[in-house]
């Protein structure tokens, strides 16, 4: 089946709210969150799509652009039709919940546990919703864009000195700041000093 | 250390095909070399580095020019790459506006001590001798600007 054929068939199976797009020769089908389990079931059971091989499930943090949320993706493959299928649904940032698809593909269990701990997406109905990779007591969701690495607090940014200036950066002009790390007044070592003794907070 | 018999990671002069070692796969690369003569300590590589593994220290020097104003230029005091942090993304090489950083095919520089993986400027300069010549110019390509 061609990517367009798979997409059109999936849209017909899932019904209202579904849409497909073909990029780089592979099809992505967007489905509404409440049709997520039905979409995966249909992709597996439909004799034309027949995407019975579950490859992976993960998420993408898209909270910084509208429509904001976390895109949860599942990649399936049809061994008989030899075509790929990427299913995608957008869960809102403030309420990242999605029904678990362990009942459709048992192999999705670990993938959902990893997605849950890394992105904070809650998979309702998961038989064992415990962290998969992170150590006990880890706070925060490391693959979210607003998660800042602890190593970025512990170590001074080597890009801070101005060219030709010594190690302490001259305090004239606005100081250059490392990309992806928030203002130290709001977060990190400086923030912890100013809020000393209040909360032992890393990873807020 | 016991003798390493692994075909993929042999001891010694690995990247050197003439010495009997295997060649790198196409598109492969090894360590990052520094041509410090080209470095102006502009800090671009250190600021772009996603791993924060490039350390640069520099100071400004004033040079008297006969028949002109005195010129200031940056003098490099320290240039180090911590290869225990480096993920070999090559962004520093891409971003360098003065062609001071290069890929070298050498990848045999394992250390027993983590500190030893921080290569200072002299060691990074030494890698420069292993950098292959750039590919020949495309004869069908456009000539130099202004020609």
Give an overview of the whole structure:
The complex is a heterodimer of chains A (204) and B (147). Chain A contains five helices and seven strands, in the order H-E-E-H-E-E-E-E-H-E-H-H. Chain A has 204 residues and is an alpha/beta fold. With 147 residues, chain B is of the alpha+beta class. Chain B contains three helices and five strands. Chain B has helices spanning 44-48, 91-95, 121-127, and strands at 32-34, 54-63, 71-82, 101-103, 118-119. In chain B, strands 2-3-5 form a three-stranded antiparallel β-sheet. A two-stranded antiparallel ribbon of chain B has the order 1-4. The longest helix of chain B is centred in the C-terminal third of the chain and has 7 residues, at 121-127. Classes of the chains: A alpha/beta (204), B alpha+beta (147). Chain A binds chain B through residues 152, 155, 157-159, 161-167, 176, 178, and chain B through 40-43, 46-49, 52-60, 72-75.
Spell out the blueprint of helices and strands.
The complex is a heterodimer of chains A (204) and B (147).
Chain A: H1 3-14, E1 19-23, E2 26-30, H2 36-45, E3 53-61, E4 70-78, E5 83-91, E6 97-99, H3 108-119, E7 122-124, H4 151-154, H5 189-194
Parallel strand pairs in A: 2-5, 6-7
Antiparallel strand pairs in A: 1-2, 3-4, 4-5
Chain B: E1 32-34, H1 44-48, E2 54-63, E3 71-82, H2 91-95, E4 101-103, E5 118-119, H3 121-127
Keywords:
heterodimer, A: 7 strands, disordered C terminus, B: alpha+beta, three-stranded antiparallel beta sheet, two-stranded antiparallel ribbon, 3 helices, 20% strand
Percentage of β-strand residues of chain B: 15-25%
Detail the poorly predicted runs of chain B.
10-15
Summing up helix and strand content along with how strands pair, one would put the structural category of chain A as: alpha/beta
Using the alpha-carbon principal axes, give the shape of chain B.
globular
User: In this structure, how is the largest beta sheet of chain A organized?
Assistant: 5 strands, mixed
Q: What order do the SSEs of chain B take from the amino end to the carboxyl end, as H and E?
A: EHEEHEEH
Strand order of the largest sheet of chain A: 1-2-5-4-3
Mean pLDDT figure of chain A: 86
Cα-to-Cα separation, first versus last residue of chain B: 58 Å
Strand content of chain A: 15-25%
The tally of beta strands of chain A, per DSSP, is 7
Describe the strand arrangement of the main beta sheet of chain B, using strand numbers: 2-3-5
- Strand pairing plus helix content of chain B: what structural class? alpha+beta
Helix content of chain B: 10-25%
As a percent range, the share of helical residues of chain A equals 10-25%
Q: Helix segment count of chain A? A: 5
Mean pLDDT of chain B equals 84
Order of helices and strands of chain A: HEEHEEEEHEHH
């Amino acid at each position: 089946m061609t990517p367009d054929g798979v997409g059109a068939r999936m849209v017909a199976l899932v019904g209202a709210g579904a849409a497909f797009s073909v990029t780089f020769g592979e099809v992505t089908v967007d489905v509404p969150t409440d049709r997520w389990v039905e979409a995966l079931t249909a992709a597996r059971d439909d004799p034309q799509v027949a995407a019975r091989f579950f490859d992976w499930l993960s998420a993408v943090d898209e909270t910084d652009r509208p429509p904001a949320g976390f895109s949860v993706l599942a990649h399936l493959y049809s061994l008989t039709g030899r075509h790929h299928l990427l299913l995608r649904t957008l869960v809102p940032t403030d309420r990242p919940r999605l029904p678990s698809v362990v009942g459709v593909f048992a192999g999705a269990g670990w993938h959902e546990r990893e997605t849950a701990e890394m992105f904070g997406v809650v998979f309702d109905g998961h038989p064992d919703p415990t962290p998969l990779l992170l150590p006990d007591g880890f706070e925060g969701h490391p693959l979210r864009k607003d998660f800042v690495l602890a190593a970025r607090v512990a170590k001074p940014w080597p890009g801070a000195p101005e060219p030709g200036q010594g190690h302490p950066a001259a305090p004239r002009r606005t100081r250059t700041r490392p990309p992806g790390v928030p203002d130290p007044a709001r977060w990190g070592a400086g923030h912890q000093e100013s809020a000393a003794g209040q909360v032992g907070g890393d990873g807020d | 250390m016991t003798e390493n018999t692994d075909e993929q990671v042999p001891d010694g002069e690995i990247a050197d095909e003439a010495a009997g070692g295997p060649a790198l796969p196409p598109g492969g690369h090894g360590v990052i070399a520094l041509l410090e003569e080209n470095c102006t300590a502009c800090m671009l590589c250190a600021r772009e580095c996603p791993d924060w593994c490039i350390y640069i220290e520099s100071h400004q020097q004033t040079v008297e020019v006969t028949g002109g104003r005195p010129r200031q230029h940056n003098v490099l005091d320290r240039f180090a790459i911590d290869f225990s942090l480096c993920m070999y993304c090559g962004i520093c090489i891409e971003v360098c506006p003065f062609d001071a950083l290069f890929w070298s095919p050498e990848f045999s520089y394992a250390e027993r001590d983590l500190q030893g993986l921080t290569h200072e400027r002299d060691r990074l300069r030494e890698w420069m001798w292993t950098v292959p010549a750039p590919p020949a110019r495309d004869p069908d390509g456009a000539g130099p600007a202004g020609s």
